[in-house]
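Page 47, continued from p. 46.
Same chain as before, 335 aa.
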Amino acid sequence: MKRFKSLAKNIALSALSLLVCFGLCELGLKLAGYGNLEVYDWDPYVYWKLRPNQDCYTKINHQPVHINSFGTRGPEFALPKPAGVIRILSLGDSTCFGWGVGNDETYSRLLEKKLNESRKGGARFEVINAGCNAYGYPQLKSYLKHHGVGYQADYVLIGSANLWTDFTEEASPEFKSSMRKRIVLKNLSRRMALYHFIFESQFGGIYHKYRTRFIPVDPTKDKIFTESSTNLTDFFAANLKETIQIAQTNHIKPIVLDFPIDRAGYTNVYFDEILAMRKRVAKDLGIPLIDLDTPDWPPAQKKVYLEGDYVHLNVLGNQIVAEKITQLFTQLIQP
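Result:
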């Protein structure tokens, strides 16, 4: 009995010591700026939506992120829309959100700046960055329908979308309940400084290098799709068409924005198929297409993607993309 009490006491002391060490490490890393990544609120239509009114940092490169009261990245905007404003809603996934770059370095924010610099009097431009990490085509459609339409935009730029997320608002209550729990857990981990420091900072290079082995960036290998009879390209095309139709019904002019990938770093014929699909949908519906998938991309001798990444743009990449969109968009809106 005495031996048992001694063992229990030692275990308790060890557990207390570990708890104190954990608390001190967590506090120290918090003070150093770790554990303040963007978090999400549950949404019955798009599953996760950026929590309004937060100032945090990007998971990669620790760049500042400001989320306004509408849950979009960037400064506040007024509703109803002020007179003399041409408003552009920028939809997309993490590329649109600005994975790894600062608030003023996203292509949406740079586009707003360049459009206003190029105008000669007249209306002022506003670009709302509604990009959100891991949004797929069904979520872009649902976001526009249930949230974006209310922003009173004149144009909507439909950017890139994840190709492995099949999260439709018509999913079963059981599936939605499961996803809601995952979002709660995700938020908890993203607010832990130790988690951020160890798994997303110290091992960040390894994560970038090998993440394609663990994350199903190739939708043809995703269990959701391999067990479905749905043709992937048809599924994405249908959701893209519905997104365009929702915009038109609400008197918003849709523009399809095509992003290429780093073909030197990653080769996947499926991405080419999706790019071709987007071009085909835009042509069939008579929608303007801003095509960045050109022979001169990426520019010679210039690194436009984040290190170890074949999709997300670095600061220079966002600058070049914003410049190209500005040139083409200006031509589209000429009277």
